[in-house]
Amino acid sequence: MQTLKVAGLQRQRLLRSGNAGRLITLDGKDCLNFSSNDYLGLNTHPDLPEIARRAACQYGNGSSGSALVSGYSEPLQALEQAIATLTGRTAAVVFSSGYLANLALAQVFCQRGQTVLEDRFNHASLIDSARLAGCRLKRYRHADAADLAHKLERDESRHVGLVCSDAVFSMDGDTAPLAELAACCGKAGVLLAVDDAHGIGVFGPEENNLGQGSVVAAGLDETQVPLLCGTLGKAYASAGAFVAGPQPLIDLLVQTARTYLFNTALPPALAATALAAIRLSQEESQHRQRLFANIAHFRQLARAAGLLVRAVNGPIQPLMVGGETQATAAERALRQQGFFVRAMRYPTVAKGQARLRITLTASHSRNDLQRLVEALSKVLIETTENPTAHD
Ligand SMILES: Cc1ncc(COP(=O)(O)O)c(C=O)c1O
Asked: Which of 36, 102, 331, 358 has the largest count of CB atoms under 10 Å?
């Protein structure tokens, strides 16, 4: 503990009272919330609590067992069908969390001793998937399909059981070159899994504005990306996660994934909430439009203020700080001024790569963004030597 403290790596839980929407109250302090994955602002949508209440009354508060025992409720089945339709896949299975869904991938689709090839910046759950399944974990350079192709050739693809990538990288906000990754895996005959936790509900083909996710936006079907994962606790303001793909792969997960078999199924109220959120996000496309208008406005304001935000057109906008203690100091100073922005530090990101992870949502106003940029400019100059240096 002392070592963590000295290195600026000790973490603190902040006690939240009330809702986590545009505003958040943490340890008694009211803040504008810029640290939430509630990208569409559905966490405070007035319709959802009543839908959850009705499902709990009809199906019970809990799910009562794992899906293969007694926990596979009608709302869960309806949710799986809706996800398959949304993502253009044949079938889907819902896990209790994205961490558990991702853990299942290597255990089910890669043999012990085989290699899982992963993007260096993949989420911890994908890394742990390979490690805990007893597979060899190898990483290719971030968002670099040429390096993946090279490693697939060098390692001989028959030794590689699975390739995994985030679609939208959770700490950097940038996106994977999905079409190139799919082409490499197709050529090598290796299964590709893409985790679109931060893209589902947010991105999608422009012509329909349904938020079908990054993989559909890239025009990739289930022959090209056979395993498509996504969480339901971010844009869809509920909990749980899915894997969608061809029926035989989904059946194999249902039959053999240990994190599915030996885990209590997602409660019906949460399944019903996620299903309603998917529908709402399609019927009320203004949420997504507002989110993207906010992203564009924030980036414009930040650049005008000299904050070097990354060239990413998504809700995750990291500002690099570098040192762990400086990042924590910046977070603290922002909170004192009424802005909640989390500092991300090792081991979530590499040492010396600490950053403020700003997340934008549909519920922010233009004035919120203006105030944030003013506060960031001031705080970063006060707390860091090199406030804005990043690509
Ligand atoms: C890319 C990514 N995948 C998976 C997860 C895990 O999802 P869950 O929180 O549902 O366990 C997260 C974060 O929560 C994530 O950012």
From this structure: 102
